[in-house]
Amino acid sequence: MKKNIILLSTLLFSSAFMAQNKGLVANANSPYSKLQSIGLEDVKWTNGFWKEQFDIETQSTLPYMWDLYHNDEVSHAYANFEIAAGEMKGTFKGPSFHDGDFYKIFEGMAATYAVTKNKKLDAEMDEAIALFAKVQRKDGYLHTPVLIDERWGTLGPEEVKKQLGFEKYNMGHLMTAACIHYRVTGKTNFLNIAKGVADYLYDFYKKASPELARNAICPSHYMGIVEMYRTTKNPKYLELANNLIDIRGTTNDGTDDNQDRIPFRQQTTAMGHAVRANYLYAGVADLYAETGEKKLLNNLESIWDDVAYRKMYITGACGALYDGVSPDGTSYDPTVVQKIHQAYGRPFQLPNATAHTETCANIGNVLWNWRMLQLTADAKYADIVELALYNSVLSGISLKGTEFCYNNPLNVSNDLPFQQRWGNEREGYIALSNCCAPNVTRTIAEVSNYAYSFSKEGVYVNLYGSNNLNSTTEAGEKIEVEQQTNYPWDGKINLEIAKAPKKEYAFFLRIPGWSQGAEVMINGKKVNSKIVSGSYVQLNQKWKKGDVIELNIPMPVELMQANPLVEETKNQVAVKRGPIVYCLESHELPANTKVNDVVLDLNSKFTTDFIKINDRELLSITASSSINPDNSWDKKLYKPISAKDNKRLTLKLIPYFAWGNHGKGEMTVWMAH
Q: What distance lies between CA 206 and its chain's CA centroid?
């Protein structure tokens, strides 16, 4: 009888826990998080921008990526699991982060299943999980390069050592994907595998020296292990997350590139590899949500200031440098100066044509800022989530949804006299570095989870797009809202209440930091509350079915300038409307005219109209410009300013995320004026 009572109470706890913890981050019980995630199934896009993007995800991107990663002639990712499981003999092929890429696609599939309930997706996930279970070692270890070598002896010891760099990264993505799978299906088959991995990591880090522990680059396992704690409530996983921070930066061989030259608690600026950095900052934010260690939050806020005000592109992109020297490498001794790559540089060091700005780094910026928003309820973090999603994340995928960018430059010129490591055209598969394609695949599937958050006082509206919200408040009451808008092309947003708590309840509407003059009405009557850009406006009252909240955000075309310390954009402007950054492509120009020849007329009327690119309807901006006929720079580094009259030209600018969908050509965000 006693066992039955214990079992029943466990089931009841599990049901209540699941009801409140079905979002991307299960922070309903996180004591230091002001906001909580809604469930992954609670928001469905109904029309407009994000519905179009989600349809491309479900109809093109996700099936394309799933098939691609099962095609052993291209990616070999699934074949690696089959070889490690003993289903066939072979050797590991592909980059050492291949496992993690497959888990990211799996996570995107789970997030999609949350909304669509497509039984085919459920069956495909179960098939993959069964294979993962066959691969996993008895001690919980799961990393195919090593397990293939253990089974077949196909790698030499040095090659195995090379593969260890992304071992924890792969495990981190496994744990995150497993938690999300559990939340959307209720099944424990993948979660049990993740428990084995988490237990292995706990034992490993309990015994490992800091030198052995520091081989963990791209620390997705920080986020993964905290989600395992939130999902299972096993305290040793939180202990492990703390330990990961404690041992970081305590060796003599740490680097700025890996953010472990000094302990995290001494770090106050962004440094090194931008993907690794942003993943680290997101993981530390998760840890703070559980422990409340003020030093962690203080450092995150200081680093955020450094990125947002000195090191981030106008598109929300991160990681200016392909290669370079750490800003802290102050010695002339070449053995002391540290090399960095794909990295944050010095403050205001933001080149455009040679910008690295890896799609994964920009997604990391979203992950980090989303967590900062949850911790603080500060709208400035939601502004960055929106900025990066619309610009430097979506630029990483074609409008058709099956070609991808590794890096996202802000200027592409045919005259650049050297070949960069990554091309300026999207590809269906980027050999040896296809990590961004699976990352953008899962991200687009999960955007709906960023749209709203809950607090004890009410619901926060973070992102705008036509959708239906059907969820349960923190107090356990039903809430249903229908949002209608043509955002980001139009700033008019309607929220109609279908069901709300009986007592007074608050709606917190984000007033974007880029906006001016926003107005709010309830049932046609203007709200007189002070509306401040870059904050949430609180609307608190008893709501009834049929009540309508209307938010109007003016969206004029704006000319943007950079801080004069950004040398690369001095005397140049960028064009922005709402959250969308615009660009100029060379196919809009006369023959033999370069994008870098264009001088934008600041007094243009800047009219807007819809155009179609690859069957997507996008808002373009028409502007006036001029071009100097004396535009030859052949064998010239400097020359006098020409006295010839400039030729007038009408330009059509398109959203930056849509560049490159016409084929190969030039592009620029910043233009002379």
A: 31
Q: Which residues of 87-121 are buried (b: 16+ CB within 10 A; e: fewer)?
A: eeebebebbbbbbbbbbbbbbbbbbbbbbeeeeeb
* 107 three-class SS: helix
DSSP run (H or E) holding 340 = strand 339-344
d(CA 624, CA 46) in angstroms, rounded, equals: 37
Q: What is the pLDDT of residues 301-349, one digit of tens each?
A: 999 999 999 999 999 999 999 988 876 655 556 666 788 889 999 999 9
Query: Can you say whether residue 25 is alpha, beta or left, with left for phi > 0 and alpha for psi between -120 and 50 degrees?
Result: beta
Backbone phi, psi, residue 598, to 5°: -80, 135
What is the tens place of the pLDDT at every residue in 97-139? 999 999 999 999 999 999 999 999 999 999 999 999 999 999 9
Q: pLDDT tens digits, residue range 49-80?
A: 999 999 999 999 999 999 999 999 999 999 99
Q: Per the structure block, which two tokens stand in for 447?
A: 């955007």
* DSSP H or E stretch at residue 64: helix 62-68
Cα–Cα distance, 328 to 336 (Å, whole number): 10
E-strand ranges in 394-514 read 411-412, 452-454, 458-461, 467-472, 478-485, 492-499, 505-511
| 583 in Cβ contact with 657 (< 8 Å) | no
624: left (phi over 0), alpha (psi -120 to 50) or beta: beta
Residue 7: pLDDT over 50: no
Helices (H), 389-468: 436-446
Question: Which tens digits make up the pLDDT trace of 571-628?
Answer: 999 999 999 999 999 998 998 899 999 999 999 999 999 999 999 999 999 999 999 8
Partner residues linked to 611 by β-bridges: 618
Which residues, in sequence order, are CB contacts of 189 under 8 Å at separation 6+? Answer: 126, 129, 130, 133
Q: Do the beta carbons of residue 77 and residue 68 sit within 8 Å?
A: no
User: Among 173, 242, 232, which residue's Cα sits nearest to residue 206?
Assistant: 242
Q: Are 136 and 467 in contact (CB under 8 A)?
A: no
CB count, 10 Å around CB of 4?
8
Cβ(379)–Cβ(342) below 8 Å: no
> Contact 573/673 with Cβ under 8 angstroms?
yes
Place of tokens 């009405």: 521
User: Whose CA is closest to 343, among 389, 368, 307?
Assistant: 307
User: How do residues 629-659 score in pLDDT, each as one tens digit?
Assistant: 888 899 999 999 887 888 999 999 999 999 9
- Tokens coding 583: 């660009």
